[in-house]
Amino acid sequence: MRYFLVLIPLALLPLLLNDFWVSQVLTRALILGVIALSLSFLATYLGVVSFAQVTLAGVAGYAVAYFGPNTVGLGFPLPLYVSLPIALLLSMAAGALIGLVARRSRGIYAIMITLAIGVAFFYFTRQNYALFNGFTGFSGVIAPKMGEGNWGDPMPLYFLALGVSVICVVLVNGFVRSPLGLAVQAVRDAPGRLLALGIPTTYPIVAAFAFSGLIAGSGGILNVWFQERVSSFSVGIGPIIDVLIISVIGGLRHPTGAFVGAIVYVMLDIFAIDLIDRDRFNLLIGIVLLAIVMAAPNGLHQLAIDWVGKLRGRAEQPRTN
Q1: Would residue 246 count as lying in a domain?
Q2: Domain count of the chain?
Q3: Is pTM, for the whole model, over 0.85?
Q4: Would 192 be classed as within a structural domain?
Q5: What's the DSSP call for residue 192?
Q6: Which residues contact 59 (CB under 8 A, 6 or more apart)?
Q7: Is 132 part of a structural domain of the chain?
Q8: How high is the pLDDT of residue 37?
Q9: What range does the domain containing 42 cover?
Q10: CA-to-CA separations, 250 to 93, 181, 220, 237, 297, in angstroms, rounded
């Protein structure tokens, strides 16, 4: 029920705002939120913080660019109903491969392994011209047509991003309640007991990373259509850190908090120039992140839940004469 209460204003906002707010603020926040959701999912239910989620988004983004329309003359154009499944399958396969490599790692070791994979993919895309067109990447990657317009227009792309966000949240909630999702959480809480039951921990870990690849790949496809391009800069260390910051701001242990962190990050990114020099944006983000971590260690999502709980408690207290 609470999700419907959130969806109603989100569906009505485009009718009240101009194209700038719809596209550069809301749509961008939803896309970043989907990618950050894949990270929060792993952190919450598997107990692993992965720095490779932007890599998974980039795999899907490059696949859409390679198998779809672009202006660099590189690739093998396929119909949309073929290229999209290929992109998502590739991002899931990449996620499964990363999970297989990092299956025995936890904590800082998992962070370092996934970060190394992300950095390696960044340099690989920059230096490979046969598939990734090197430093330049792909440009002119437009969204599919929709009648006389296309899905890349501000309003259609917003509702597409909103729909994908809702589907991803529903998929996460369904996954964690499934037998496989329960096995993933068992790996997080008591891997020894899972092994005692005769269930290898490798399969749930690989499945969780593959599922996160599906979520991240969905965000990566939307991001390519939003930016109309993809290059090594799309999968560099900057975007990797940005997604982590978004997840921490919203609440790393609350998957839906990724969208809260995304809207805060986008608002700061757009309007910080009115407060400070653009070169000092990272300083501002660092200060905001430090303040949020100190005031709300579990993120803004949990902080909002706590406030609502306190307000309800006060409202339900019996009045005394």
Answers
A1: no
A2: 1
A3: yes
A4: yes
A5: H
A6: 87, 90, 91, 94, 121, 213, 217, 220
A7: yes
A8: 96
A9: 20-145+152-240
A10: 28, 23, 20, 20, 10
